[in-house]
Amino acid sequence: xxQRTPLQRVGxxxxxxxxxxxxxxxxxAFATPSAFAPLGQAVPHLLMVIMLGMGMTLQPKDFTIIxxxxxxxxxGVIAQYLVMPLAGYGLARAFDMESMLAVGMILVGAAPGxxxxxxxxxxxKGDTALSVAMxxxxxxxxxxxxxxxxxxLAGEFLPIDAGGLFVSIIxxxxxxxxxxxxxxxxxxxxxxxxxxxxxxxxxxGITLVVMxxxxxxxxxxxxxxxxxxxxxxxxxxxxxxxxxxxxxxGRLPATGRRAVSIxxxxxxxxxxxxxxxxxxxxxxALPAAVFSLWHNISGSLLAAYWSRRPxxxxxxxxxxxxx
Length: 323
Known about the structure:
single chain; disordered C terminus; 17 helices; mainly alpha
């Protein structure tokens, strides 16, 4: 049995305590906003580092599921880009949010799946291969789908530069992921030496992004904090529940339903924050900052619940087909 290295253990610990770490960091940034507001300019670069790390963890085998089992991946990605953008728009309208917050809700909804979802699916005894494939495919589709969805749904609130969003997503997401993939392919020995540090780097990056956004929008947080928290909790809940329902409707087995539920409910809120900061203002990034905290809490709770309910493959697969 392979022993965990010290760096792996630190990564595991920070991953486990990510919600508490992010909450503490947000509190510090809120208490001393002037100290952390300058971090706002670094948000896109922080996310680029995180996406580079994601690319380094991917291998060709992670994409083979698309050829072997295309239907679960297609079902999951459609759910990802259908449920969350519409839910974000619906909540913005229902709560009569001012323009910047409304755009922020829609940006979160139109973002691809978050990388932490893969860990949550694994802990929940879900289909981890499907989760990784969904995250990868939704991320690669983001340069096309995210700007189109934001233009469509958020255009009534503010003028949307879809071309600018496309370029930003290419720069922030696609290029780092592809570079990471190429490094893993052509310099595997080098990448193997740094893989253990990537979870820690991701936690640090997300924490700094949240601190930057909270510091930049501290005044707005005082005014609309409760409203944003409620909207984000509902948004995430709709994603988890409707993702599971659509996966069941698509006749996926129980492991696949768990994967799609968590994938749809957990967003790349760091990307939403980066786009909001770059193209709008820190207030528009506020829903993404709250989402970064909450979806890790809800994902952890759901994973803990499902982990205590082992999947009985034969029985539940039959249930999925017969339902």
